[in-house]
Design goal:
Layout (H helix, E strand, L loop, with lengths): L1 H8 L3 H23 L20 H11 L8 H14 L5 E9 L2 E10 L2 E3 L3 H5 L2 E6 L6
Antiparallel strand pairs: 1-2, 1-4, 2-3
């Protein structure tokens, strides 16, 4: 608990604002996934970047931290939230979902790709999954 308080005390005001936006986005995506079928989700469109751009890795950090306080924030929830936040700050991205079987057990993982880089999963982790689908489909080429 002490370590958590020390980390929280070290955050700047900008960090708190970003975390607030990330918690709201992760929670909103989680609720939408509970209520709507997957096919009803709309892909985010990258908007004109705001005057202050936030680096994509910083957005990834915020989503990872926010997911700790939002119940049910699975990798899919996190990937969709990051996709929407990246678009908000002018970065186009795609959500990838991969699948694998290990010792007879099926598993899946979702991550985000932007500018040839993977987010929400290391290259080693992602390499273990066969790409199952990409969302949105229109950004493949």
């Amino acid at each position: 608990m002490t370590t958590l308080l020390v980390k929280a005390g070290a955050l700047r005001r900008d960090d708190w604002g970003l975390l607030g936006r990330a918690v709201f986005t992760v929670a909103r995506v989680r609720v939408v996934l509970w209520i709507l079928p997957w096919r009803r989700l709309q892909p985010a469109q990258a908007v004109t970047p705001p005057a202050t751009r936030i680096h994509p890795r910083r957005l990834e950090w915020a989503v990872r931290v926010a997911s700790r306080v939002v119940p049910g924030a699975t990798c899919l929830t996190q990937a969709l939230a990051l996709h929407y936040l990246l678009a908000r700050f002018g970065y186009p991205s795609i959500v990838q979902v991969g699948v694998r079987t290990r010792d007879g057990n099926f598993s899946a993982h979702a991550w985000v790709e932007h500018d040839g880089q993977a987010f929400l999963g290391s290259s080693n982790d992602i390499a273990r999954y066969a790409r199952f689908f990409t969302w949105p489909h229109s950004r493949l080429g």
